[in-house]
Every structure is written in structure tokens, then in C-alpha cells.
Write a structure and sequence with these properties.
Blueprint (H helix, E strand, L loop, with lengths): L2 H18 L2 E2 H8 L3 H13 L3 E6 L2 E6 L9
Antiparallel strand pairs: 1-3, 2-3
Helix pairs in contact: 1-3
Length: 74
Amino acid sequence: MIKNDIGINAGVIWNLLSQNGKLTIRGIEEYTSYRDSMIHLALGWLARENKITFSVDNDNLYVELTNTYLEMYY
């Protein structure tokens, strides 16, 4: 896996969350068809940049964008 690919996948997931709001990991997988490992790497990238937050509801892990990022992610 190349670092550039992880960044591209992070951008795709950022846009997905921007359009759809809060999603589970499974929801992200359904939209993108990425494998779990690719999703986790991209989410790690976004989390490190403080662009997403995580929450748990009914034993489901949800991911959503932080309120501070309204610009497009590239």
C-alpha cells in the first residue's frame, strides 16, 4: 500500500462523509467497496488530521466529520 493511495482513499471517504453525514464502517464499505484494512488506514489518516470524530451508539462505531472542516479535502 502506497502512502499516496491512503491519502486518496481518505479524500474519497471525507467527501462521502461530507455528503452523507455520520456513517458506520460497514456503511463506508458499502459506498466505497474498499476492504476493511483500506478503510481503517484512511480513517487513521483523517483522525490524525483531526478531520473526523468517532462515536458509539448501540454497539456500532460511527464516523463523522468534525465541525471545523467545511472546505473540500484534497
